[in-house]
Amino acid sequence: MFTGIVDHCGQITDIKPGQEHSTITVSSKFNDLDLGESIAIDGACLTVTAHTPTQFTVELSPETMRLTKAIKYEIGTQLNLERALRLMDRLGGHFVTGHIDGMCQVADIKPQDKFTELHFNHVPEIYKKFLVKKGSVAVDGVSLTINEVTVDGFTVMLIPHTLEKTNLSNLQIGNQVNVEFDYLAKLVLNQLNSEQL
Question: Quick check: helix, strand or coil at residue 13?
Answer without folding.
Answer: strand
